[in-house]
């Protein structure tokens, strides 16, 4: 060793194991491209179209705050992840150049901006689609009971997250036995490769906001609207009780079918994680995604956003509590309690604003 030299070292994996990992990643990359990226592009175009087409049922102020919050939090986290990006883009025996890391950061921020736009248009279009079908899954700020509904959604979110954690544990255990699933490491996901590890839970909020609005709220609503138009009852049909029951049963069947493509797109978007074989995450998230969809239809959009945030925050809190870094124990506990604090703050702000402005409050963001 010399004072002016940089020493690098890496563990060399067995060649057969490295080849298997490379094979799995190649498959995952193809599935992510065809099953997630391309559908996301189509979804973006459709979100813009339906945001305009359904403007009579919604407002273009819907989703402004959430999409902006998503972009700011995720962009901040990406800069916090600079060491992880450097580690991920480095070769086996080299350190990535700063210019390469900067270019990767800029590219990611541009992609995040596009994702924020998709989240915004999906919020507007999704709200319009569901309201045009006679369902209100997302309360508005101007509603007198908005604050109490946010607190209720938060409480439901914590309970639903417990259910999801239990189901996830059972599913992953079963897949481990059936498929021989195993886990790798991703430098970009390690708290050791972050400037400020306590910022890790920001990812939970970003995922909860964007994925629930894009995939569940808009994606399911879009397919449900199409199926409803395809199987619309004929005028002058059976108006008896049996006819009403038949129509209700058909509606439930169509809604169940609408859940599948949106959930598949969401699952394909996660097959690139360091969990092998790739089928593990796909099967797991098809099951978890179906539960998220049912929860949204039963409890509303805010409840599943809170459930998603609490679920991911809990998993990230466990990671921070076990990483041995100073300060992360407190950050882990705070990340778990933060959704409750945010809900209480929103309810307090709404009550204060409603008391001061009455019915003149703006449409919910």
Automatic annotation (TrEMBL):
Enzyme Commission identifier(s): 3.4.-.-
GO MF term list: peptidase activity
UniProt KW Protein transport keyword: no
One Gene Ontology term from the biological process aspect of the record: proteolysis
Top-tier EC class: hydrolase
Keyword Metal-binding: no
UniProt keyword annotations, A-Z: Hydrolase, Membrane, Protease, Transmembrane, Transmembrane helix
Sequence intervals crossing the membrane: 33-52, 64-81, 101-123, 158-183, 253-276, 288-310, 330-349
Taxonomy, superkingdom: Bacteria
UniProt protein name: CPBP family glutamic-type intramembrane protease
Organism (species): Cohnella rhizosphaerae
């Amino acid at each position: 060793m010399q004072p002016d030299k940089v020493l690098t070292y890496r563990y060399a994996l067995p060649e057969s194991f490295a080849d298997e990992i490379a094979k799995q990643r190649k498959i995952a990359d193809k599935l992510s491209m065809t099953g997630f990226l391309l559908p996301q592009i189509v979804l973006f175009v459709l979100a813009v179209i339906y945001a305009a087409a359904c403007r009579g049922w919604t407002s273009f102020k819907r989703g402004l705050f959430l999409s902006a919050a998503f972009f700011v939090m995720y962009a901040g986290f990406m800069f916090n992840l600079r060491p992880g990006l450097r580690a991920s883009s480095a070769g086996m025996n080299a350190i990535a150049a700063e210019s390469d890391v900067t270019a990767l950061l800029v590219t990611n921020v541009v992609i995040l901006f596009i994702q924020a736009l998709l989240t915004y248009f999906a919020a507007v279009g999704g709200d319009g689609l569901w309201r045009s079908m006679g369902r209100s899954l997302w309360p508005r700020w101007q509603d007198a009971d908005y604050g109490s509904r946010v607190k209720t959604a938060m409480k439901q979110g914590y309970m639903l997250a417990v259910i999801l954690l239990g189901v996830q544990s059972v599913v992953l255990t079963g897949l481990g036995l059936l498929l021989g699933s195993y886990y790798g490491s991703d430098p970009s996901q390690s708290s050791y490769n972050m400037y400020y590890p306590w910022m890790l839970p920001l990812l939970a909020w970003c995922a909860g906001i964007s994925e629930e609005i894009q995939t569940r709220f808009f994606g399911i609503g879009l397919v449900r609207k199409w199926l409803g138009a395809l199987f619309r009852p004929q005028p002058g049909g059976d108006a008896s009780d049996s006819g009403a029951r038949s129509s209700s049963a058909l509606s439930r069947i169509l809604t169940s079918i609408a859940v599948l493509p949106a959930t598949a797109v969401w699952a394909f978007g996660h097959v690139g994680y360091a969990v092998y074989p790739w089928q593990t995450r796909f099967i797991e998230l098809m099951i978890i995604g179906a539960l998220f969809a049912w929860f949204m239809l039963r409890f509303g959009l805010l409840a599943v956003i809170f459930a998603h945030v609490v679920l991911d925050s809990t998993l990230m809190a466990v990671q921070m509590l076990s990483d041995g870094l100073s300060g992360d124990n407190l950050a882990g506990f705070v990340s778990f309690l933060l959704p409750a604090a945010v809900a209480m703050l929103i309810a307090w702000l709404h009550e204060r604003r409603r008391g001061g402005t009455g019915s003149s409050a703006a449409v919910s963001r």
